[in-house]
């Protein structure tokens, strides 16, 4: 029997590769001689570059600007002329050097990483978005790629979403990416503005007050009116603080479900050859899992080949019916073994090894 272990990260505890390793070790202890292959996955958010590297892409480290403009080192993954760029690498919340800066945080660092990949010869950019610290409509990303955002006096705007309210003109003559193919890997369907937009839905997660949300939403509306009004209402335009809007409207990106893009890149279909069971998972199995997160995508892909898939997680907030409807043959959680969430996070690896033995007992022959 052959088992494929393809989990996402357990956020705040283990990377996807560490989760996969722990599960594989537990399976091997329970069933010596069992053939186990690991393939860590991601859905476009934090951990996407790591998953690509684990699947054979090469990591490239480049200088970039963080969410507040301070210099840092970010990574992208490359194979051939394809680069996997993870927005959170340079522009994520975890990259903030201090408290959130909802009005002034920038996506410029993501543009720095894209520019470096293009300069290195990449002609296909897969842009995974998630975990953004900014709500700047992707304006910072575009400035790093050669765009100029000017006020009425012809001065370039400072970083941040709030400053977009002063935008008078957008000069894209310095953006030369006509030979580069962009794919936006995201499951976010939000438009740029309005009650379901980037500021209203995701701004509070980035430290925005009610007043900040109003300021940012108005600024994003103004930004869209100048940059490309027809794209403001497109599904996905509100992804990553509006970086989705800039990718779709200016970079000509095609929007595809993040997990679908990543599974294709990682060679998931080929990895399923001869497999009898797939084990996937993430830190929390919940309603967000059902809306296109990595484990649900893995389960769908396995089901299409007639292969059962079980999920492991730190905690499971889904009902038995929801577990089944998501395509999982069963779901296991660390809280089944250890009710204290803090201990689950601190001792995730050994608990996963124990949980994997349960999976083996229930789903792998003697």
UniProtKB/TrEMBL annotation:
One MF annotation (Gene Ontology) recorded for this entry: glycerate kinase activity
Recorded coiled-coil stretches: none
Keyword Transferase: yes
EC number assigned by the record: 2.7.1.31
Pfam families hit by this protein: Gly_kinase
Similarity-based family: Belongs to the glycerate kinase type-1 family.
Protein name, UniProt field: Glycerate kinase
